[in-house]
Design goal:
11% strand, six-stranded parallel β-sheet, three-stranded mixed β-sheet, 15 helices, Rossmann fold, alpha/beta, globular, 49% helix
C-alpha cells in the first residue's frame, strides 16, 4: 500500500451545478419528508433566497428559523432546536453560509442525541446519527455542507467550540451557483479567501495524503484564477461556478486533514472581537504561511505555482515566501485588511488569545512545530501589521 494514501471519507451525496436546486423536492418526496425546518439568517431571507428554495418544495410544511448570527451561538442552536421540537420536524435544511449550516448541523445532532450543543464539544462525543439534514450553501467559502465539524460560539466563555465526528455531516448537499450570483463583493471576498485558506492549510497539513493534496491543489488553482473576477464581476457565471467548486474541493480535502495555525488563531479573534471568520483568516494567513514556509518550502513552492506566481530564478525558500506574498496581494486586491488594527485587537489580550488557540487540534497538524510563544509572536505581527 502506498504510504501516502490515508483514510478519505465523504458521507454526503452532492448535487452540483446550475439548476441543481431542482433536486430538492425529489429528495423530500423520495424520503417521505413532510415537515421541513429551514435554518438560515435574516440576510439570506431578505435577499429572497429562502423564497427561491421554498418554491422548490411542493408537498411539505415549512418552518423557518432566521436568527442565525454571523458567528453562530449556543443560543442560536437552542432556539432553532426548540422550533424543531415544536413543529414535529422530520428534515432540517440549512441554507446560507457556514453559520446557518453549522446551526443546522447542531439542530440535527440535538434532535437525535438530546442535551445541549456544549455537551458534545470535541471529537466523537455523540452516539446517535444525525436527524436527516440537507445543506444548501449560498457562499463559496466554508464547505460546511460536506464537513464533519460544526463551530459554535459559546458567548459565556467568549470561545468558539468545535463539535466533530465522522457522522456530523449532511446526508445531502445541493450546490447551485445560482444562489451565489447576488452575493455582495465584501462577502464574496471574505468567504472566497476562507476557501483558499482551507486549501492551503489542508495541502500543507501533516495529515495530508495524495488524495487530499490533489483536491487542495485544484481548489487553489480555481480560487486563484477566479476569486478576483467573482468579487468584481459577481454576475460572471463561470467565476461563480468555479469558486463554488473550488470551495467544495477544499472542503473535501480539509475534512480529512484538518487545517493549521491560521484557523487555530482565527477562532479566538472571532469569538472575542467579533471579526468575521473569513476576514480573520485573510489577515492571519500570509503571516502563518511565511512562518511555515521554512519548514515545508517545497509545498509552499507548489502553492506559488498553483497561484500563478512566476518563480523563475528564485531559490527554493524565495519561491516558498512568494506564495505568502501572493496570498497577501490577493487579499489586498479584493479589499480585505492585512492586519487587525481596524478591529481594536489589543496586544495585552495576546496571551489570552494564545491560550485558546493552543487548544485547537489544528496546531498539531501544522507543518511547522508550534509552541505558545510562536503563536504569541504571530498575533503581535498581525496586530501591528509587521509582515
Amino acid at each position: 500500500m502506498n504510504p501516502n494514501i490515508g483514510i478519505f471519507n465523504i458521507l454526503t451525496s452532492v448535487s452540483f451545478g446550475y439548476g441543481s436546486l431542482n433536486n430538492l423536492n425529489s429528495i423530500l418526496e423520495t424520503n417521505g419528508f413532510h415537515n421541513v425546518l429551514i435554518v438560515t439568517d435574516k440576510g439570506i431571507r431578505n435577499a429572497g433566497i429562502i423564497d427561491q428554495v421554498s418554491k422548490k418544495i411542493e408537498n411539505a410544511d415549512i418552518t423557518i428559523y432566521d436568527g442565525t448570527l454571523p458567528n453562530p451561538t449556543v443560543a442560536n442552536c437552542e432556539e432553532a432546536y426548540e422550533l424543531f421540537k415544536q413543529q414535529n420536524i422530520d428534515v432540517v435544511i440549512g441554507v446560507g453560509g457556514g453559520s446557518p449550516l453549522d446551526v443546522a448541523k447542531a439542530v440535527a445532532l440535538l434532535a437525535t442525541n438530546g442535551g445541549a450543543i456544549t455537551d458534545y464539544e470535541g471529537i466523537g462525543k455523540f452516539k446517535e446519527n444525525l436527524s436527516p439534514l440537507i445543506a444548501i450553501p449560498t457562499t463559496a467559502g466554508t464547505a460546511s455542507e460536506v464537513t464533519n465539524f460544526t463551530v459554535i460560539t459559546d458567548e459565556a466563555r467568549k470561545y468558539k467550540l468545535t463539535v466533530g465526528g465522522l457522522n456530523l455531516a449532511a446526508k445531502w448537499a445541493i450546490l447551485d451557483p445560482t444562489l451565489t450570483l447576488g452575493l455582495p463583493p465584501s462577502i464574496t471576498a471574505a468567504t472566497g479567501l476562507d476557501a483558499l485558506v482551507h486549501a492551503i492549510e489542508s495541502y500543507t497539513s501533516k495529515a495530508a495524503n495524495d488524495i487530499t493534496k490533489a483536491l487542495a491543489r485544484e481548489a487553489m488553482r480555481k480560487i486563484g484564477k477566479y476569486l478576483r473576477i467573482a468579487v468584481y464581476n459577481g454576475e460572471d457565471r463561470t467565476a461563480r461556478e468555479e469558486m463554488l467548486m473550488g470551495s467544495l474541493l477544499a472542503g473535501l480535502a480539509f475534512n480529512n486533514t484538518r487545517l493549521g495555525n491560521c484557523h487555530a488563531m482565527s477562532h479566538p479573534i472571532s469569538a472575542v472581537y467579533g471579526v468575521a471568520h473569513g476576514v480573520a483568516n485573510a489577515v492571519i494567513i500570509p503571516y502563518v504561511m511565511k512562518y511555515n514556509s521554512f519548514a515545508a518550502p517545497e509545498l509552499f513552492t507548489d502553492i506559488a505555482n498553483d497561484l500563478g506566481v512566476n518563480i523563475e530564478g528564485l531559490s527554493l525558500f524565495e519561491s516558498a515566501r512568494a506564495a505568502a506574498d501572493a496570498v497577501r496581494e490577493l487579499a489586498i486586491d479584493i479589499g480585505l485588511p492585512t492586519d487587525f488594527r481596524l478591529f481594536g485587537v489589543e496586544e495585552e489580550k495576546v496571551k489570552e488569545l494564545t491560550v485558546d488557540a493552543m487548544l485547537s487540534g489544528n496546531i498539531l497538524v501544522n507543518p511547522r512545530v508550534t509552541k505558545a510563544n510562536d503563536i504569541e509572536e504571530l498575533y503581535i505581527k498581525t496586530i501591528r501589521g509587521d509582515y
